[in-house]
Write a structure and sequence with these properties.
The protein has about 350 residues and is of the alpha/beta class. Helices cover about 50% and strands about 10% of the residues. It has 3 domains: about 90 residues, Up-down Bundle (Single alpha-helices involved in coiled-coils or other helix-helix interfaces), CATH 1.20.5; about 220 residues, P-loop containing nucleotide triphosphate hydrolases (Rossmann fold), CATH 3.40.50.300; about 55 residues, Helix Hairpins (Orthogonal Bundle). The strands form 2 sheets. A 7-stranded parallel sheet has the order 5-4-6-3-7-8-9, sandwiched between helices. Strands 1-2 form a two-stranded antiparallel ribbon. α1 packs across α3. The protein binds guanosine-5'-diphosphate (GDP).
Length: about 350
Amino acid sequence: MTNKRKPEWTPDNAGREFASRVREAASPASNITASSGAQPRKRYDTATLVKGVLAGDRTLLSKAITLIESNSEQHFEAGQELIRQLLPHSGKSIRIGITGVPGAGKSTFIENFGLWLIGQGHQVAVLAIDPSSSLSRGSILGDKTRMEQLSRQSGSFIRPSPSSGALGGVARKTRESLILCEAAGYDIILIETVGVGQSETTVRSMVDFFLLMQIPGAGDELQGIKKGIMELADLIVVNKADGDNIPAAELACRELNNALHYLRHATKGWQTKALTCSALHQTGLQEIWSSITRFVQQGKENGVFEQRRQAQVTQWFDCLLSEAVLNRFYSDPDIKEKLPALRTEVENGTLPVVLAVKQLLD
Ligand code: GDP
């Protein structure tokens, strides 16, 4: 990974709290990077970033996202000021979550669906939440060469998952990136995640429409029921419906549609259905898009679309508030001093747990 480096605004002696890495652009815009020799680290003030994002400048959008992804307190205020100024320009996209097990065909789908959408006149941003990066420091989503054709389109913007941190932190950054992408004029935001662990619920909590990608023939088409993921989905797509796979895909699709009658729906008033597609051969894309546009239109007419967005913001607020309260509590010098001794007493059975908690809170 020689072509990845730390963002220019990280201090030279930065440690691991600076998780972000940026990939060198194929042809950096000459007005924003030094033209020769050792490149001095250039910082962009908020006004320049705001102007750049609003003008749809992809390089400055990238830099703005890198700023909000920083874990350093020093960048927190600048990042939040950026969000504050751009927030009024956000909200106008359709936010679509896409999940599925590794190998289901998500990147092939996003690449071809993204290209198709651009062909229809849309601007497409792709973000990702990769739970594997927070669990193992490895990455399921990030290690492949992904979406090369899509990334070359002027109407697209692709940002890999923030590379480390707890799922909550990664999700916060993705949510804020989404705001920046919308302010930059992207009207379709695709947020990809892997079908493992808790990240589906996290993505569901920040998108309007949630698509679950399945593959036929594994004999476990209905596996999503067990994990409760089918109940999060607004559409299930059975991918790889091509060649010899067609009968198996159609059978899986029928079984899913039967099962979906008995499940709770993810969105009030919307019957989740299963469709087949071939991401590779680009069939079924039009039907998927029709389903999404019908969903949005219906949701806007009956108010469900706006209600969900409002509920998501409230939920996000509550979530950040409890996180901040916890952080403040644990970073209090008094608590830091008393906590280890109380923990030992609890472990030794010399102090009741409830009493220990009360002593700390008091
Ligand atoms: P991801 O891990 O979910 O992102 O899956 P990928 O998009 O990387 O696809 C995994 C493999 O399935 C790759 O070898 C793809 O070429 C293949 N694949 C993806 N979509 C299709 C499809 O519609 N039909 C067929 N036959 N293969 C596909």
